[in-house]
């Protein structure tokens, strides 16, 4: 876009790259630290000797985590949750955001609706009443209990509606002129030109469903039905340790708490890291709107 | 028995996840055998309890037709079961069905994480779907009793409890049963696996290879402790030429089962403790109960801690380090003395041993700052967990029968611990006692382990050892020989001069001071207790760090009394008056 | 009128699926707020628990130190809100200047990473980093001839540590939102600006920032909803009695007082108060924007 480069511009760019690189290093460092711990020997890890490089390199923690059938099982539950939850979240969110993005003169109730949604960001009933509702609606001990109660994320809806409002008016008017109704306009015009925000919100939704662990622990009636992150929470076990056990303490000698935890944290983050680049393609500026203009 | 605070508990136990891969080859044969053997046991059980002064009911009579009993269960991350078993179907559920005619059913099973357990229980209680039998905390028990949702067990306990069970429950003058009673009625069965003994009494752990290196002897007085701590700080015990070691480990909770200072305060005959205004001692002058945290002796302890802090004997960063972080300084060989409980050897000291096999630690009894002997104190003389029966359940005696059954199978004269406690399958030991719905624990098991194992190590005669103790024996031998260090921690715990010898001597010489208050929290305690405790920790931390003068202690005491402390004292003494009658 | 209704019907239909979910699973549990006015015991339920009127609120207001704690909460959360707005915008703008796609993408991914780590983990790392004896930061300070500072137990520094580490963990999240917003700025505007001879600085000031403004206002308004949430997990994992004076916030106070575990009613009362204050702030900014700029934030 910009062809000429003054020397001050050059200086800025060098500085810019340096600053961004520094920021990235700062943000990257904790996960490297965790990765290093996960590959270290337990004694080095418990003594706090591990910095950014493994001490006493081994992969025991990983083989331990992966060797457990429960790990793969809970990964399966999480994938199921993502497959059900993300499309539902996106569908409900986009539909609601589209109507709410209309101006008051076109949709008189929009402001009332918007505030009905926004209020839920501020007020909550707490654990016990929420549990009762989930129980009364028959979602306990079911995958739907992890999907339906959180099917609407108001933050995301507001974000999408804000972007929808920013779309050029002419675009929508042209569509209506062609005789399209709201549904068609949404599908054929609005969604295709809003891919950056939809990608963003999809990412947030995937991350939410991936990370959320509490409802799994509370709503499910057996550990076999826990999603991955709920299962991982249980790594911090308060095991019945009322008697010294030879068997247990042999295990203690082999895998320390910290290395396993580190391995689990890393494995729990990895899939998101892999998904991210795919979603990122849609953030590349200018492309979408440029095509709209023509 | 290993008891510890919840926080440190989760630290260690995280690692205790089972690595055992159980081959899924299910052997029908084996299950049948177990069934047969189990059917033969009731007779043995009856004999064992036959000497009772004629209990009017058979303590383990079988229900015919069988009854159903619902409960809820918490399961560790990697629970171990023999092949084919699960939390819903295991040696205990089968034995309950075949021997007692009780079909146990889990309404739900949840992971046993400390963060979630309480919430899962409160939503269950709030939703009104209570199971027939529940394993609850003291607070939950109190709430259920007050809202009239649990059965009175007085009669069924009297009628059905076997002699062995009554023996356990009468420990320490019967305060365990007191704690489960409400207005003179027994409303729950105490779970003695969850505290209630004196095993948690503090002691001094010292790194003995450092003592040897610096030519010091084990502590006999508080001056010795100071001398050792000073030498460990200044005389380069790790020999790296740097002044990077500390004399005494301390974590930010100040009171803790590891790196706490309860044992330290004992030297000054002061007995402060952390959880909400919970530690009460008898004031000999008035005969009334007084709050331990405001006694003038506490100030002496604080002054001593402040001196240690000033001299650099305590890590100046202690206010931000929790048990895990402090454990790091121990396992990296930076500290050589701490006050703690018997299990400190298994964690974190065993980790240090793995990293540095020259390191050696031993526990020593508490020492005094003057000529009066130091007393160890036990804050929780009663268990923290209880079994309750839902109001309206038709067979409330079933829980007593199950308790009798557990005692019989684990501790009875004809115990079958190789079947009901720890099963050996394909050469691997699998603990199965945890599957029992109702459990109990005799307070002297660990002391017995110490005595028998120490003797066997001297004589080489292992005939008196059961499977469990034989395991300790083998590991301790291997660790001493240096062939396998994984069981190193067993020596300082069960071996000669080990932690159980210290505890045994405490008990024999009457050196244990028990918390005099074990009732449920009083109204003002619930309302103001946490706040008062916060003031206390804040004031103490500041005095230790020198951020406030020691005289601030007097100010704290004044405030404490005014802001609800006096009221609490009153209420506690009302409770005490009803108890001492 | 009827025609209008008919015209709006599809729009209603589009909102309703989401609204039904919200009505059931968000408004349903809100009935539970009644326990703020009860002495709620789970075993008794909502109907049998005792009604106590404003007792729970009075209990709160009479806690010693309560106003200091409220002050800390507002101070810390206000700084977090402001810094949490500025940093992501700046980073997004800087990223926007980057022409090497691989670099841009890598930075985007990396800055989002700390978001995935819980404060239990990060808290330990922060304490290590800031340790006066072994921490990297203090080693740097010493290297430059300064005196080591015990940041996490210094009342002067503690709030700043909270704010800066919070930004460190979370700015990547908002940065993504702004990056997405940047894509919707019409490139034609830049082209026109270049024609007019505007340099990058002026383009950023006159085109990019105004283009981002709606999103900036939206994010600012939404973050006002957190005006009394100064971040429980973070404070809980970093503070100590020495810094209660500067770092104790409403949520940690409530937690320490044992209110979360057993006193559901007081905890709910705190939650209700927080919600109402947030509502006032959010509604206020919404109304202001509408009155003076004729702009609806959402």
From TrEMBL, chain A:
Keywords on record: Cell membrane, Membrane, Transmembrane, Transmembrane helix, Transport
PROSITE patterns: ABC_TM1
Superkingdom of origin organism: Bacteria
Keyword field contains Transport: yes
Pfam families given in the database record: BPD_transp_1
Domain annotation ABC transmembrane type-1: ranges: 75-276
Compartment(s) of residence: Cell membrane
UniProt xrefs under InterPro entries: MetI-like (IPR000515), MetI-like_sf (IPR035906)
Residue ranges crossing the lipid bilayer per the database entry: 82-100, 112-131, 143-164, 185-210, 262-279
One Gene Ontology term from the biological process aspect of the record: transmembrane transport
Keyword Transmembrane helix tagged: yes
Topological relation to the membrane, as annotated: Multi-pass membrane protein
GO cellular component: plasma membrane
Coiled coil: none
Family: Belongs to the binding-protein-dependent transport system permease family.
Descriptive protein name: ABC transporter permease subunit
Taxonomic source organism: Paenibacillus sacheonensis
TrEMBL record, chain C:
GO cellular component, as recorded: plasma membrane
Transmembrane segments: 12-37, 74-95, 107-127, 171-190, 211-232, 264-289
Entry annotated with the keyword Transmembrane: yes
Membrane-topology descriptor: Multi-pass membrane protein
Protein location: Cell membrane
Family: Belongs to the binding-protein-dependent transport system permease family.
Protein known as: ABC transporter permease subunit
PROSITE patterns in the cross-refs: ABC_TM1
Key words, A-Z: Cell membrane, Membrane, Transmembrane, Transmembrane helix, Transport
Pfam families recorded: BPD_transp_1
Keyword Repressor (UniProt): no
Principal place of residence: membrane
Ranges where the ABC transmembrane type-1 domain occurs: 70-285
InterPro entries (alphabetical): MetI-like, MetI-like_sf, UgpAE/MalFG_permease
GO biological process: one example: transmembrane transport
Highest taxon of source: Bacteria
